[in-house]
């Protein structure tokens, strides 16, 4: 496995973990409330969006390698 594939694998794993974290915080906010859980949820889903954009950019940029 080359370095490009490992990098893509880490981006996918980080995106999945950020999505799970955001969902967990959102579920926690629904059951218990609190601004911290809502902020964690928003941060997790923002990280997902950023990682998707970065992953798309990286795949396009490294396609020729």
Describe the model.
With 65 residues, the chain is mainly alpha-helical. The chain is 89% helix and 0% strand. The longest helix has 30 residues. It is elongated and about 50 Å long. The two termini are 14 Å apart. The mean pLDDT is 96.
Describe how the helices and strands are arranged.
Blueprint: H1 3-32, H2 35-62
Summarize the structure in short.
It contains two helices and no strands.
Looking at this protein, list some descriptive labels.
mainly alpha, 65 residues, 2 helices
| Sequence stretches where pLDDT stays below 50 over 5 or more residues | none
Tell me how many strands there are. 0
Helix content percent band: over 70%
Mean pLDDT metric: 96
What general outline do the C-alpha atoms trace? elongated
Beta-strand level of the residues, as a percent range? under 5%
Indicate the radius of gyration in whole angstroms: 15 Å
The span between the termini is 14 Å
